[in-house]
Amino acid sequence: MSDAVAPGAPIRVLVIDDEAGVRRIFTKVLSRAEMDVTEASDGMEALGILEKQSFDVILSDITMPSLSGVSLLAAVRERDLTVQVIFATGNPSLETAMRAVELGAMRYLTKPIDHRLLVETVREAARLHRLALLKQEAMSLVGTMHPLAADRIGLQTAFSRVLECMQLHFQPVVSVKERRIWGYEALLRSSDSVLPTPISVLEAAERLDRLRDLGRRVRFLAAAAISSLPDETRLLVNLHPSDLEDPEILSQSAPLTPFAARVILEVTERTDISGRREVEAHAGALRQLGFGVAIDDLGAGYAGLLSFLQLRPTVAKIDMGLVRNINSDPRRQAVTQSLVQLCRELRVEVIVEGIESAEERDMLIALGCDLMQGYFFAKPSPRFESIEPECWP
Q1: 296-332 burial string, b = 16+ CB within 10 Å, else e?
Q2: pLDDT digits over 364-384, tens only?
Q3: β pairing state of 234-239 and 263-268
Q4: Which residue, 186, 251, 174, 256, is CA-closest to 223?
Q5: Do residues 23 and 59 touch, judged by C-beta distance below 8 A?
């Protein structure tokens, strides 16, 4: 990862071109503009330099022996998501220019390049590099997706890395009346510096059109964990609505199918499922295979009844936004009690999420709730943890 240049420090530029004369001209022009310039004669030499040094800007030819500029960019993005790349070529083509920009190149210049334009472009790229570093730091503080998500090759690299290394953590769902663990929800966890949160991973999958890859990986990991699932408990696995359109999920050879009787598939209400023709049929097929079907985030998603009509859930999870400080909010109490009663009339079990205090737990018991989940009982863990005795009413 590149480090920010201190204010007033020279801009660090790596110039890559297999024509020595062109390299010398670029170096001379940029050095006169008080920039710190390093030269490489081809892409392979440049990668060796990048292993040891960091730069604000890379100025590279497109067509080079052994490693093209576009291939170099892909390799650079595996190491650094913030350095700005400018391509220069004597043989421009629209297809190459579009591909370069798609992969995250900042600019595409045609040789011969006006010296003033070259200096101005590199300076602009250096400013963008500093901005990228600041955005990266700011977004890491708030836990959102990496600011360079628009850099497709960088996002692809990070997402593929997450698929290989991500884990599932498990949070208990308890029956307070029976004082036992009813089930566990499987929650995606990432330790990747670029995509560190479940939301950032999901956003990346949506942007890259790889929701199916993410869903299959989650279900594979969930199936692998079931051998350790305590007896008489269920595993709740989150689905994106698009997962219901994946033919693999209905296959007899799918990872979760042998364990269908112990698995509840959660579909969030936060995503609109209208217009998804396969959802209702596939939800019915999943029930026939033995899976339970749950609606997640009830009360925080779309207000219509379409999700209930299409999914016909066996479980509904009331969103934590309704639970927060419910012990002191009569309006939240009334809405939650009505939702619980209505779901009971529809023969749908209710799980209340987000309990963080004994006061919230006790009020929910008074409102007729039984199944609960939240940090008050246990935080998500890579293991199927038990509940501390003091958590029970």
Answers
A1: bbbbbbeeeebbbebbebbbbbbbbebbeebbeeeeb
A2: 999 999 999 999 999 999 999
A3: parallel
A4: 256
A5: no
| Alpha helical stretches, state H, the chain | 20-32, 43-52, 69-77, 94-102, 115-142, 152-165, 198-207, 211-225, 278-289, 306-311, 320-323, 330-345, 358-366
Q: Domains plus CATH for the chain?
A: 12-142 (3.40.50.2300), 154-391 (3.20.20.450)
Q: What is the pTM of this model?
A: 0.70
Distance CA 238, CA 383 (A): 18
* Spatial distance between the Cα atoms of 276 and 310, rounded to a whole number of angstroms: 10
What pLDDT digit, counting tens, does each position of 302-327 carry?
434 556 767 888 998 988 888 889 99
Question: Encoding tokens for residue 300?
Answer: 């925080």
Spatial contact of 360 and 327, defined as CB atoms under 8 Å apart = yes
Report the C-alpha gap between 144 and 66 in whole angstroms. 38
Cα distance between residue 123 and residue 112, in whole Å: 19
Of 385, 371, 377, the C-alpha closest to 356 is: 377
How does DSSP assign 104-122, residue by residue? Answer: T-SEEEESSPPHHHHHHHH
**To which H or E segment does residue 317 belong?**
strand 315-318
**Which parts of the chain sit beneath pLDDT 50?**
1-5, 145, 147-150, 302-304
